[in-house]
């Protein structure tokens, strides 16, 4: 099983390959944006309470601004 990279807004663990929707205030007001977690951001500090996640599209989001979807391969 892949290591936990952070925890989403519902306190569910997030791992590489997880599909998430963005709850970020910076997200567009359109339909919820979706993304796939690619790993930790290069500037992430593991000692911080909030983790910076790198998405497959190259964007960076905070773990608490995400909600893991049920279509995730690493759930359960």
Given the structure, what is the number of helices?
Answer: 0
Summarize the main sheet. Answer: 5 strands, antiparallel
- Spans of at least 5 consecutive residues whose pLDDT stays below 50 are none
Mean pLDDT: 86
The helix content, as a percent range, equals under 10%
* Number of extended strands: 7
Strand content: 35-45%
**Cα gyration radius (Å):** 11 Å
- Name the strands of the widest sheet in spatial order: 6-5-4-3-7
- SSE series: EEEEEEE
Principal-axis shape equals globular
Word description of this protein:
There is one protein chain. The mean pLDDT is 86. The chain starts with a strand and ends in an 8-residue tail after the last strand. The chain has a 5-stranded antiparallel sheet with strand order 6-5-4-3-7, with no helix packed on it. A two-stranded antiparallel ribbon has the order 1-2. Strand 5 and strand 6 form a beta hairpin. With 76 residues, it is mainly β. It has no helices and 7 strands.
């Amino acid at each position: 099983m892949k290591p936990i990279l952070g925890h989403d807004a519902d306190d569910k663990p997030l791992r590489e390959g997880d599909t998430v929707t963005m709850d970020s205030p910076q997200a567009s007001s359109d339909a919820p944006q979706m993304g796939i977690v690619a790993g930790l951001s290069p500037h992430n500090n593991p000692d911080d309470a909030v983790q910076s996640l790198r998405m497959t599209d190259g964007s960076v989001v905070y773990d608490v601004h995400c909600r893991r979807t049920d279509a995730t391969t690493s759930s359960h």
